[in-house]
Write a structure and sequence with these properties.
302 residues, Rossmann fold, binds NADP nicotinamide-adenine-dinucleotide phosphate
């Protein structure tokens, strides 16, 4: 039987509706409006498109949101001052500095300058530490891993006691999702294995997985025969493998492939995310959720 396709587009739309209601209620009952600033340095087309998407979503949800564009050659000290200005601005609950930053700027220094209580990307070492401790200690969850976890939970897969295998150990996906899945609590309590380029038998580990999360950035790395029948497969990979003409717009658009061969894998898996339309739409949505959480915490709303 073909796998259930977990649509990130649908789940993200559902969560955005929930957030919209929550924001309206916060405004009405408490006079609080979640505030998000996105800081963009330079004009990298991919970064421009990412921040535009974030701003559009923030507006749709009823946030106070602003886009702060800075020139490519902004001195590091000036960018740090700008971050500090937003750290002190009570209308702003979330600060997002779009990465990558130009080479003359130390990314770690800038991310560490963000007030951890406004770090809605959850990249600040304090928040990474809080995530590791888990439970109520973790204020924000990093956006892509939070999106992955939400997709698993909302698709009805039991995580408690499940064998979870994570392919990849990056700081933005692999390590945090592995850490989240092993915590006690909702959507977690799993037995987690993390595999990477140093792993001896990748296939054998993948075959054990009740839930297989793949974030390697290698098109079709995971072969269908590596998948346990009935498993839940979350494909985080987004790989540009060429271009094609869009029938809708007549413009050239990238051809995207996941890290899993979707067509073959869906005949074996129990549930699987597509690429595109799987994890991707969840990431921005979880950023919005973090900003709402931050505004609530700042205002003492439970
Ligand atoms: P990354 O920083 O390049 O990390 C990739 C990880 O995969 C590394 O840990 C690497 O192992 C491991 N890996 C690579 N090739 C492997 C192989 N052949 N066998 C085993 N492990 C292998 O990438 P990332 O930032 O985590 O992103 C991963 C993918 O997810 C990319 O396609 C990216 O575009 C996508 N992504 C999507 C979203 C979204 O919102 N949809 C968000 C973030 C990322 P080593 O550590 O040993 O090198």
């Amino acid at each position: 039987m073909a796998a259930k396709v977990i649509s990130g587009t649908e789940v993200a739309a559902q969560i955005r509706e929930e957030l919209k209601k929550e924001v309206a209620e916060m405004k009405e009952k408490h006079g609080v409006v979640p505030g998000l600033v996105t800081i963009l340095v330079g004009k990298n087309p991919a970064s421009v498109s990412y921040v535009t998407g974030k701003q559009k979503t923030a507006h749709e949800l009823g946030f106070y949101s602003m886009q702060d564009d800075q020139p490519e050659d902004i001195p590091e000290a000036d960018l740090l001052k700008l971050v500090d200005k937003y750290n002190k601005d009570p209308k702003i609950h979330g600060i997002l500095v779009q990465l990558p930053l130009p080479k003359h700027i130390n990314e770690k220094k800038v991310l560490s300058a963000i007030d951890p209580d406004k770090d809605v990307d959850c990249f600040h070492p304090v928040n990474v530490g809080r995530l590791m401790i888990g439970g109520s200690e973790a204020r924000f969850l990093p956006c892509t891993p939070a999106g992955i976890q939400e997709l698993i939970v909302r698709s009805g897969f039991e995580t408690s006691g499940a064998e979870v295998v994570v392919v990849g150990r990056s700081n933005i996906v692999g390590k945090p999702i592995a850490n989240m899945m092993l915590q006690k609590g909702r959507g977690a309590n799993a037995t987690v294995t993390v595999v990477h380029t140093g792993t001896k038998n990748l296939e054998a580990h993948c075959r054990r997985a009740d839930i297989l999360i793949v974030a390697a950035g290698v098109p079709h790395l995971v072969k269908p025969e590596w998948i346990k029948p009935g498993a839940c497969v979350i494909d985080v990979g987004v790989n540009r493998v060429g271009e094609k003409m869009s029938e809708k717009t007549g413009r050239m658009v990238p051809i995207l492939k996941g890290d899993v061969d979707f067509d073959a894998a869906k005949e074996i898996a129990g549930a699987i995310t597509p690429v595109p339309g799987g994890v991707g739409p969840m990431t921005i949505t979880m950023l919005m959720k973090n900003t709402v959480t931050s505004a609530k915490l700042a205002a003492g709303i439970r």
